[in-house]
Amino acid sequence: MDRPLKHIWGIILAAGSGTRIAEATQGTRKQYLEYKSAPLFWHCARTFSRVAAMQGVVFVFPPDDVKAMEKQVRTYFKSENLGVKWAVTAGGERRQDSVRNGLEALPDTCEAVLVHDAARPFVSGRVLTDLIETLQSGARGVIPAIPVTDTVKRVDNDTVTETLNRSELAAVQTPQAFETALLKEAHERAAKEGWTVTDDASMVERIAEVVTIPGESANIKITVPEDLKRLEQTKTPVPCVGWGYDVHRFGGENDRPFTLGGVPIAGGPTIVAHSDGDVLLHALTDAILGTFGGGDIGTHFPDTDPKYKGADSSVLLREVLFLANEAGAAIKHVDMTVMTQVPKLTPHAAQIAKNVCRLLGLEPHQVNFKATTEEKLGFTGQKKGIKAVATVTALREL
């Protein structure tokens, strides 16, 4: 029986202490270990966000880390907007306590939930999609499982007491998917009746049927020191190109003074703008955002916000440079062109290029500035305004 589930969220459990791996990581909790320039929990969030049905994620962190990690997650979303809603909550003493806290942080509209361990950063979107489709086909609980290939024996005090039929056994992974109401009911029963379990499925199995889908051998859990080798992959710098465009009208005597690339230009026309109207730095800022998928300048600094009225564009540029650095985008080259009929920019070109070098921390050979007219064509040719384009090349380790 197919049923539409429109409100699906994920819970990413990142509240564990990782005691079995603590010495090898010098005390860093495994959920915070970096892989390809991002912590493991963020890799999980990326995968969840790429599944169209996913509406949001709840991050569950150690209680002492919640305040700092909420700020950190907000920074990550600002530099790499995953396009899903999110929340942060504190974990509990046991895994099942952390899950319960995560359930309480879900919105009331959430119909189904996928619970995932942050220590499994290699899960694919295929697994998430299969879980959701199985729920939508009528299952109330579904988990990914892979066949057990080794012979498994029951042992008591070093003595084998039984050889189990491995054809009846499966190794279970996360995420595990459930109707939200069902999982909440299971947790309420567990709290009332004192159940202690190692995963959500073993809790739900007591009150409802749980089915399986094929898991993935690559979906390993970082658990012991030997698993850290999975994170030791050579980082490959990949070129990323961002393109920016901006335009401003010329104004009257009460509008903004003419500034280009952070350089005031005496005698130029005034600019109609909410901020300082630096068309070149605006285009450059948008281009930098483009190198790491950071959105656009209007999203970060909306002209509806009074605090950006008359804002210095070089300050906004520095904020975006910080985001680029957080996203691992290293700027290597900038090419800019301004199109205007007035004023003549040739006398100012060297100073503009020099100032952009200073703002970006680049060498002169990494910054190119050009200015041109449009042969009296269009609004720029008619001296009604000015426009600028910028192309930024960056390297990002992926």
DSSP helix fraction: 25-40%
Count up the helices: 11
Q: What value does the average pLDDT take?
A: 94
Number of strands: 18
Based on secondary structure, the structural category is alpha/beta
- Strand/helix succession: EEEHEHEHEHEEEEEHHEEEEHHHEHEHE
Cofactor: a divalent metal cation
Protein name: Bifunctional enzyme IspD/IspF
InterPro entries: IspD, IspD/F, IspD/TarI, ISPD_synthase_CS, MECDP_synthase, MECDP_synthase_CS, MECDP_synthase_sf, Nucleotide-diphossugar_trans
Site (Transition state stabilizer): 20, 30, 274, 373
Structure notes:
There is one protein chain. With 398 residues, the protein is of the alpha/beta class. The chain folds into two domains: 8-231, Alpha-Beta Complex (Spore Coat Polysaccharide Biosynthesis Protein SpsA, Chain A), CATH 3.90.550.10; 237-397, 60s Ribosomal Protein L30, Chain: A (2-Layer Sandwich). It has eleven helices and 18 strands. It has helices at residues 40-49, 66-79, 95-104, 125-136, 180-193, 200-204, 279-290, 297-300, 313-326, 349-360, 378-381, and strands at residues 8-13, 34-35, 38-39, 54-61, 85-90, 112-117, 141-147, 153-156, 159-163, 170-172, 176-179, 211-214, 237-249, 259-260, 263-264, 329-339, 367-372, 385-397. The strands form five sheets. Strands 1, 4, 5, 6, 7, 10, 11 and 12 form an eight-stranded mixed beta sheet that branches. The protein has a four-stranded mixed beta sheet with strand order 13-18-16-17. Strand 16 (329-339), helix 10 (349-360) and strand 17 form a beta-alpha-beta unit. The longest helix is centred in the N-terminal third of the chain and has 14 residues, at 66-79. It is elongated and about 90 Å long. Its EC number is 2.7.7.60, 4.6.1.12.
